[in-house]
Amino acid sequence: VLGVIDHDPSAAISGLRELLQRYAERATSWHIGAVGSDDVSSLRDAPSMIARVLEAMGEVAPRPVVSVPWRAQGEVRALGSDVASPTVRVDAWASADSVRESVEGGRRVGVTPSWVFTPLDEDRFGTEACVRRLVRLAVSGWEAGVGWSPDGGGSLVVERPWRRESEGSGGAMPTAWYGAGRTRSEELAGRRPVAELYAGEGARAIVAVGSTEEDGAIIAWNEWGRGGDAELRARLGFGAGTVRDHNGNERTVEAVGGEHVIELTDTPVFISGIDTRLVRFRAGLQLVPRFMESRAQRHAMEIESFNPYRESVQAAVRFASPEGWDF
Fold first, then answer.
1. How far is it, in rounded angstroms, from Cα 253 to Cα 220?
2. C-alpha distances in angstroms, 302 versus 68, 77, 97, 195, 286?
3. What are 218-248's pLDDT values in tens digits?
4. 126-131: long-range contacts at Cβ-Cβ below 8 A with a sequence spacing of 24 or more?
5. Tens of pLDDT along 52-89?
6. How far from the centroid of its chain's Cα atoms is residue 4's Cα?
7. How far is CA 76 from CA 118, 148, 152, 275, in A?
8. Which of 12, 102, 144, 191 has the most CB atoms in a 10 Å sphere around its CB?
């Protein structure tokens, strides 16, 4: 549709009105552009053309639900808030940072898209690699606002969660992502990120809460650290914690020596059974400034803390000082 409009706008809009008048009463959802294509974002002045199509639809279609295919790399905020339901395709090789930037860019202008994640070729790269990448990208989108943000984070879907059982059989089987996606939905639905807990060099541990502080969890993974360096070592509560992987497998972690120790891989795990306020208090402790110049002199630093409790807190700070250092 947009290609025709790009060639001859006046004639195309006139023909579109005739099409809408014929089907507007029966069809409430409309998709602009070819299904499975994101060529719309490469057309010249695409946002302006989309606005003209929406204007024409609004004249004859009662409350149309319109989706527009768009690439995450194509500046989502360029669409503007007039496009109520863009479908933004996230390439299989997109980075976690680019996903976060796209979601945040859309939120700033009030765009509420459906984020369509394209999986890697399972036969070529292997099932585990495909699932691992999709889970990481999905968590990145959630961290930026997908599924919980009141100002338009949008929703997340994955292409082809089913595959044919065999040619001509007509049957379908769920892909490995289907199970991982279900686990992700169960763990993240209704929760939002509120803090980040230090989990070792190269690792990340995002603290999330639900409708209450008691409905808390930690989503943690090794982003780039070496295997032995990536672990979450902290008191997460006053009982055992439950660690759940993307396939839904669970294990119990008891505190040893006052700490829960959880080794992390490059696939996120979901940790529940935590004391959310305790974890948020620990996550809120930080030195300011975060870095100091390497000079042989006395440095002034402050310790900042966040108190999630409804009463004052008393605490003692002990420094594990390097040899030769005085505090």
1. 14
2. 49, 39, 30, 20, 8
3. 999 998 877 656 889 999 999 999 999 998 9
4. 127/176, 128/176, 130/176, 130/177, 131/176, 131/177, 131/180, 131/246, 131/267
5. 777 777 776 666 667 777 666 555 555 555 555 667 77
6. 35
7. 17, 18, 12, 38
8. 102
